[in-house]
Amino acid sequence: MGKYEILALENPLLDIQAVGDQALLDKYGLKPNDAILAEEKHMGIYEDLINRKADFNAGGAAQNTARGAQYILPEDSVVFVGCVGKDKYADLLVEANKKVGLHTVYRVDEEQPTGRCGVVITGHDRSMCTDLAAANCYKVEHLKENWDLVKQAKLYFVGGYHLTVSVPAIMALAEEAAKENKIFMLSLSAPFIPQFFKDQLDQTAPYWDYVVGNETEARSYAASHDLNTEDIPTIARHLAQLPKANSQRKRTVIITQGTDPTVVAVQDEDKVHEFPVHAIDKSEIADTTGAGDAFAGGFVAGVAKGESLKTCVDMGQWLAHLSIKELGPAYPFPKQTY
Ligand code: 26A
């Protein structure tokens, strides 16, 4: 693994996470299990969570993934880009990333504060409400200014949440990957992405070498694209067969389903693979926030190392398991090795 072999792009966020209740969800009209963009009416939630003794964690889905991949890989393997504000929250993110050795090259916005994600925990559910703020100010120009990093990397990981921010930046990476026969990987991120950012998502589709998501995101894709099915293997196979820009690589589609088997479809293969999830003792579960991001982190580390599909999935499940033992989207120290 060389210097910054993986480049990841998305929204650097500070998670403000606390245990809530139905009354708090009702106050802001939130579903128990969801991820949304905050509107004006949601802005009080961060204060409410802080009053409930919130934990402050480094978040942002792809940033969690990037930290996860770096946790596994040799020093200086992963670089993360996104936009933060000029404030103490940004310092906190840099600190948390440094702890695992994740290098960040942030655009710093002079006006907007660092983005926040309010996480309301009720039982096993978590509702996430994101005020992107500075994260929404990422610009493709920043990527162009750091094009040496883009050139250096062999694999690009883009969080689908960034489709709400800068499609030009995503497309710049996608096209570069296809042109140079590098790897482009995208996460579906949340049901609202295929639902409300369908056109943006579809623009990136021909460039996916890997696309990763969970069952609700896959079903949201199927609904918004009129696939008339909720069957995960069928949806995975459909995604694998969509037109592809770079014909030198076959597309791989990975759909996680919590404790149910991980489904993987590969372009031009009839058989859809299913990988059972290793059982986790309930007593080991501290917090599942970021488990999916951790899965992607382990998986992408495996891909970067050139591991087999089976091993990549296993590395994803291994890292997800580790992150579930921690509070917030974090990984245990002292470092464990795969
Ligand atoms: C644009 N939105 C809504 C988001 C996010 C997000 N990361 C980037 N963009 N909404 C929630 N998250 C992150 O998801 C992680 C859990 O998977 C949270 O910051 C949390 O760390």
Verbal overview:
This protein is an alpha/beta fold. It is 38% helix and 24% strand. It contains 13 helices and 14 strands. It has helices at 22-28, 45-51, 61-72, 88-100, 140-145, 147-152, 167-180, 192-196, 198-204, 215-224, 232-241, 291-304, 309-324; strands spanning 6-9, 13-19, 34-37, 55-59, 78-85, 103-109, 115-122, 125-131, 155-159, 183-187, 210-214, 252-257, 260-266, 273-275. The strands form 2 sheets. It has a 9-stranded mixed beta sheet. Strand 13 (260-266) and strand 14 (273-275) form a beta hairpin. Helix 3 (61-72) packs across helix 12 (291-304) and helix 12 (291-304) runs antiparallel to helix 13. The longest helix has 16 residues, at 309-324. The two termini are 16 Å apart. The mean pLDDT is 97. The protein binds 6N-dimethyladenosine. Residues 10-11, 13, 15, 35, 37, 59-61, 64, 117, 128, 130, 132, 159, 161, 164, 289-290, 292-293, 329 line the site of 6N-dimethyladenosine.
What coarse outline follows from CA principal-axis ratios? globular
Bound molecules: 6N-dimethyladenosine
Structural class: alpha/beta
Uncertain segments? none
Q: How many angstroms does the end-to-end distance come to?
A: 16 Å
Number of helices: 13
Element order, helices and strands?
Answer: EEHEHEHEHEEEHHEHEHHEHHEEEHH
